[in-house]
Backbone:
């Protein structure tokens, strides 16, 4: 009786004092969070209890913590908002590490909330204890261990600010159970940023002026745009379109930058780099002014560094100062947001000071580019006979064309490997945020959970995962998530029964010794689909290809399409490791250029 | 950690050689928020990216203990040192980073404690050298001395080398503390 009286007496107080878990949810709400991707466990039970008692934040139960992070990435990259992940301590947190590093490498804004054992147990090797902040320190932009209740709300707000500002990235907050169970004070976001963290967004006008002057002098200029432009937002991408059009310069893009500039625009020369187009790579090699916007001279882009765009004057605009001169020495660095830099470049270009651009030289440059384009480097030959084996390129090309026919807003995720590169080559992206792929880390198993995140963000859109049979098995359990939330994700498996890119490298670099790259004992993907309450399709021949893709796209639920394709196709063009951009290996359709992989190149990955 | 004899004296010079591929030794000072894990972030950056740490000192430098100063002696080509600076600057709890070696004239000092165990002629010689170096004997027994010496790293190197044949038993060095000369501050 006594205890009950006391409880009642404490009631008015209790209604104003929130638990840490409630403070956490309130802070998430204030940050505009609508969806959290997670998986429960002991250390986060208080948070799950608080989630249960509210209906403003939706929780999506994944089937593996890695998938929770990739789903949040798909959500973030398709919306430009911060993706949120909730995992438990120990294995929950360690399973999330791959996704966090993936987000770090590709600059995806995420906040990952991880449970932790109570503060007083930390360091005792408690059940499901891991040094999560220690493990994730090099895999996040920043991380926190909240040890005091009064730090909780401030930490959550600051984490969101750090995740989305500057060069975006994942931020982890480790939450000991006593912090989420016990009372904690709420605090609104601070208007003052952290003193030690002040990313520069406004570019130096003088540097922009010099850059534009160099652009005006250019006889063979080239824009080289990356994911930074997409991260700067749709307005930045629109501005990029204006800048490219007003200058008349050609534009190439990195894998991460696809969609920043419309792929169907005549001024777009395709993706550059290892599996970039012939015209993009030769233009990069031969240009005299290279304007890098929000790109980071990744080794997949540069090829042999000392032969990368050897005669060009280089302008590099990036929000992350550590990217300047990291790999390639540049002539004009510009630190700032890509959108503001592009806007400043437009103003300077319109001001029209200095000599007029050399129209004849530009015309001549375009003639060169058209000559390279005429090679049609992505061309392949498909036997049109009804019983012919489908080439993987054909399968991907038809997925793109038939998806386009539906007229629906389409988002495409991929796994990692040959199918990813073919998708990058054959899909045309007219808008930003429609292309979800793991670039920097190259994480197999990325695509299916990323599609989950994108479909949740865009319930009415067409979400396609172009997958390989090997990659998709790495996170195939997410078919369960897809079934639970009735997500009409379209999973197209380009099934060549090999880890295709591994097989390709083994053919080209290791004497066709296909060590462990054959996909043995594959499941029956149609039956697998059915067991996960999805619809399964299969196409084995050209006669079946279009009808199967059409039927799959038309189905109003989740589908798994097993597209059985030719085993031995290689992805071309290809700049072998250690080679320069003008030493591409072309496909059998195009004349071989005789690029030789050096021993030094073999050492590279 | 030990400075090789005859190594570049870049720590005391005002600027590196000016040649792009020459490695030089740089003293980098980092002002950081004094929070848990900040040293691990800095050290992890060096190991994770394959940079070298020759010595490192860290201690709070503000009255309220809110910020610490980390002094790192490292070596590399100018491009690598610049990457180290930029990568450090990118860390969220890092307030300021300066490469003192290229910033201008600076003072870099280190302290060493040297234990010498010897008797007779060697002991007398050790004491004589210590006096020449203005090292203080901070612990004395019938058979041993502990000398304390402060100065540039090269001076400490020489002292330790001279003590080696005279019964050198143990060495403990602090790593470098450094400031720019003149009125400018970090």
Residues:
């Amino acid at each position: 009786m006594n205890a009950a009286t006391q409880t009642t007496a404490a009631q008015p107080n209790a209604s104003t004092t929130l638990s840490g878990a409630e403070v956490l949810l309130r802070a998430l709400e204030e940050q505009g969070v609508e969806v959290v991707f997670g998986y429960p466990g002991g250390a986060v039970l208080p948070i799950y209890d608080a989630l249960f008692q509210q209906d403003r934040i939706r929780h999506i139960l994944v089937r593996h913590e890695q998938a929770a992070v990739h789903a949040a990435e798909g959500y973030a990259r398709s919306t430009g908002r911060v993706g949120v992940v909730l995992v438990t301590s120990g294995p929950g947190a360690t399973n999330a590490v791959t996704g966090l590093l993936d987000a770090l490498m590709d600059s995806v804004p995420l906040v990952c909330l991880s449970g932790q054992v109570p503060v007083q147990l930390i360091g005792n090797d408690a059940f499901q204890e891991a040094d999560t902040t220690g493990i994730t320190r090099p895999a996040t932009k920043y991380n926190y261990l909240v040890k005091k209740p009064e730090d909780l709300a401030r930490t959550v707000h600051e984490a969101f600010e750090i995740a989305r500002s500057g060069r975006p990235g994942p931020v982890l907050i480790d939450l000991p159970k006593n912090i989420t169970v016990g009372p904690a004070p709420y605090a609104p976001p601070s208007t003052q940023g952290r003193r030690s963290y002040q990313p520069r967004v406004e570019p130096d006008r003088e540097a922009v002026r010099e850059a534009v002057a160099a652009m005006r002098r250019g006889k063979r200029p080239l824009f080289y745009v990356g994911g930074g432009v997409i991260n700067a937002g749709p307005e930045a991408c629109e501005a990029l379109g204006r800048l490219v059009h007003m200058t008349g310069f050609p534009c190439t893009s990195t894998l991460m930058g696809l969609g920043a500039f419309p792929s169907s625009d005549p001024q777009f020369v395709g993706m550059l780099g290892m599996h970039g187009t012939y015209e993009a790579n030769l233009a990069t090699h031969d240009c005299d002014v290279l304007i890098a916007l929000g790109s980071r001279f990744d080794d997949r882009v540069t090829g042999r560094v000392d032969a990368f765009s050897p005669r060009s004057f280089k302008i590099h605009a990036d929000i992350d100062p550590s990217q300047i001169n990291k790999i390639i020495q540049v002539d004009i660095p510009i630190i700032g947001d890509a959108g503001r830099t592009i806007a400043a470049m437009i103003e300077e270009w319109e001001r029209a000071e200095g000599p007029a651009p050399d129209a004849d030289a530009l015309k001549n440059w375009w003639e060169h580019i058209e000559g390279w384009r005429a090679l049609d480097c992505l061309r392949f030959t498909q036997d049109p006979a009804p019983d012919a084996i489908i080439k993987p390129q054909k399968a991907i090309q038809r997925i793109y064309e038939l998806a386009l026919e539906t007229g629906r807003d389409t988002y495409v995720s991929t796994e990692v490997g040959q199918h990813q590169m073919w998708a990058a080559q054959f899909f045309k992206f007219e808008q930003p945020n429609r292309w979800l792929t793991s670039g920097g880390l190259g994480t197999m198993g990325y695509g299916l959970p990323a599609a989950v995140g994108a479909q949740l963000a865009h319930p009415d859109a067409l979400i396609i995962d172009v997958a390989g049979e090997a990659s998709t098995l790495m996170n195939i359990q997410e078919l369960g998530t897809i079934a639970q939330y009735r997500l009409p994700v379209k999973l197209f498996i380009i099934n060549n029964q090999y880890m295709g890119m591994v097989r390709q490298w083994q053919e080209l670099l290791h004497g066709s010794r296909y060590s462990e790259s054959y996909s043995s004992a594959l499941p029956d993907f149609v039956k697998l689909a059915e067991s996960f309450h999805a619809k399964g399709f299969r196409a084995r021949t050209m006669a079946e290809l279009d009808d199967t893709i059409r039927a799959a796209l038309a189905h109003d639920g989740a589908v798994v399409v097993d597209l059985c394709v030719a085993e031995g196709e290689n992805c071309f063009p290809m700049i072998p490791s250690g080679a320069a951009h003008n030493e591409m290996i072309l496909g059998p359709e195009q004349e071989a250029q005789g690029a030789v992989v050096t021993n030094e190149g073999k050492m590279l990955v | 950690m030990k400075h090789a004899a005859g190594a570049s004296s870049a720590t005391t010079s005002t600027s590196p050689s000016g040649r792009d591929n020459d490695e030089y030794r740089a003293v980098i000072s980092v002002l950081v928020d004094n929070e848990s894990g900040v040293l691990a972030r800095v050290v992890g950056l060096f190991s994770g990216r394959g940079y070298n740490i020759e010595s490192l000192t860290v201690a709070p430098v503000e009255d309220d203990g809110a910020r610490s100063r980390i002094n790192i002696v490292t070596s590399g080509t100018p491009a690598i040192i610049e990457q180290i600076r930029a990568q450090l600057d990118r860390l969220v709890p890092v307030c300021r980073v300066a490469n003192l070696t290229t910033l201008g004239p600076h003072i870099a000092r280190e302290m060493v404690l040297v234990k010498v165990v010897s008797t007779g002629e060697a002991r007398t010689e050790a004491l004589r050298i210590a006096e020449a170096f203005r090292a203080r004997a901070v612990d004395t027994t019938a058979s041993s001395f502990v000398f304390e010496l402060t100065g540039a790293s090269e001076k400490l190197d020489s002292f330790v080398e001279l003590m080696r044949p005279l019964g050198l038993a143990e060495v403990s060095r602090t790593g470098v503390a450094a400031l720019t000369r003149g009125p400018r501050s970090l």
Summary: Chain A touches chain B through 21 residues (CB under 8 Å). Residues 392-564 of chain A form a domain with the Rossmann fold fold (CATH 3.40.50.970).
